[in-house]
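Encode chain A's predicted structure.
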Amino acid sequence: MCAAFTHDWLSRKPYREFHPRLRAALERLTAWPEPERYDELVQLVPHAPDVSIPRFVTQSPQALSEAGGYEQHVATRRAVPTRPEDWHDFWNMIVWAHFPKLRWALNAIHVDPETGPIDPRNRRTPAQNLATTFDESGMLVVSTSKRVLEELRALRFKVAFWDYRDEQLASTRFYFVGHGMLESLLVPRAGLTARSLLLHVPELPELEASDAQRFELDAFVANRIDSWRTSRPILDPIPVLAIPGFSDNAAAEFYDDPRNIRFVPISRRPHAEIESLAAAPLRT
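Encoded structure for chain A:
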């Protein structure tokens, strides 16, 4: 999706929740930056001291071929091939800026040929299919409210987003880590669904003071992605436009309309406990 660079979207969720220094720089742009300038934008977002940030380079068919493919180029050259004036690749940069360990973990799965049997239809292993889904439509749902998370896991979206609306607004944050979803939300359509990891946290700092928790989340989720080689997680479906603030959903009727909520609670889903950020060792 190539188009003129505008930033009217910065006033809307989830874009207005980007790191303030990056958001301020984006507001000053009057035209598309060259891919090599993405390096400057990424560095505006604070990162954990042990994190490695790739370079962003203009995509070259020759370089891709020499490296053996896109993900191999990222892994071996520590450089992300980027198409100029391209929204999809722009959002990819945004995710790298906020969650670099998560992105490296996805890349490691993509280039690992030992993650399982290869599907002849797309030449990917099951773990790579999962990584691709999360790379494009992934979301982290972080909340101090276990009951909100439990209602989301049970697909009771009206309860989570309407009956518990005040609690959800006060307790829960949504981090979009799928760059395809960030692109889709430029012109949102009914039925947009994020594939999500639900995480319970003991506290939820104000967004402007949340860097330390973001570092923890980045390491925690990277650890979880590493485990996808041998296990299959639940990626909970969340209808994005049902989240308060993401559409005109300030009425109970919104949640009764099947055009907006396409999932129904089912009892046959495998039970899984909501994970806690404080419950597992972090990736270092």
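Residues 280-284 have pLDDT under 50 and may be disordered.
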